[in-house]
Amino acid sequence: MKMALKKNTRAAVLSGALVVTLIATVVSGREKPGSELIVPASERAAAQVATQPAALVADEDLDLDKLQRAKKDDSIGELFTRDAEPAQQAIAGAAGTPAKPAEPAFPFQYLGRMVDQGKVSVFLTKGDEPIVAAPGQSLEQYRLDAVSDTTVSFTDVNTGARKVLQIAAQN
Q1: Could you give phi then psi for residue 85, rounded to 5 degrees?
Q2: Cα dihedral 13/18/24/30 (nearest 10)
Q3: 108: closest CA among 149, 78, 138?
């Protein structure tokens, strides 16, 4: 009997709260609108135009062509290169002196090295092609000169330019 009374009391409290909420909703909906006037959008726009400076109001006077940036023919060199040669070429080209032709990208990437009975071999890749080379060996237009703990040195046979691949030292 005590449980039935608790259930009835709980139901009565919830019902009372529901009734109070409904009454509050109806009463608040009957309030008179405030002193704010509802103004059509066209009248609001006219009121805003009247308060703005004349320079902002006259759309006909606005020349959008003045907002366009003039295009220049100057080309911008590669900004994030490791060496300064491309930047120097761009400066030389802008100064009117002919710049030397751009060298092709170095085709080899370092994979690792092996020392077998005092002879060093280097594992490289050219694209997807694996290559095993030793100092003194020619690889297309490059000659492998030396291998150290931190570098692999090459010489371009055609131009004599030296290229160095930096490698991580072993612990």
Answers
A1: -60, -45
A2: -150
A3: 138
Q: Are 120 and 147 in contact (CB under 8 A)?
A: yes
| Residue 88 to residues 79, 155, 160, Cα–Cα distance (Å) | 11, 22, 20
User: 130-144 in b/e burial notation, b at 16+ Cβ within 10 A?
Assistant: ebebeeeeebeebbb
Which tens digits make up the pLDDT trace of 16-53?
Answer: 888 888 888 877 766 665 555 566 666 766 666 566 55
| C-alpha triplet 16, 21, 25: angle, nearest 5° | 150
Q: Determine the Cα–Cα distance for residues 15 and 81; give it in Å rounded to an integer.
A: 76
Is 160 in contact with 146 (CB distance < 8 Å)? no
| For the chain, percent of residues with pLDDT exceeding 90 | 16
